[in-house]
Amino acid sequence: MRLVLTPSTKIVLGWTAIISIGLFGFTVARDSVIQNRKALMDMKKRIREQARVEGEAELERKFLERLERERKNDITAS
């Protein structure tokens, strides 16, 4: 027994294939965009954390320099 497809069935199968492939492509592209956004957010988070740590280190260094200057001023004033 041979399967005979009518023209309307062929059209339906063709559109089904086109839509399925399009949706699959959209899903893959969306997942790629989501992964890129996550990677970008992680990178920004690491940069902010590094800047915060470096800023704290800079403040600590300035504080110690000021403390040392005040000690020297106290010693010379005495």
From TrEMBL:
Keywords: Membrane, Transmembrane, Transmembrane helix. It comes from the Eukaryota. The keyword Membrane applies. The chain crosses the membrane at residues 12-29. This is Uncharacterized protein. It comes from Lymnaea stagnalis.
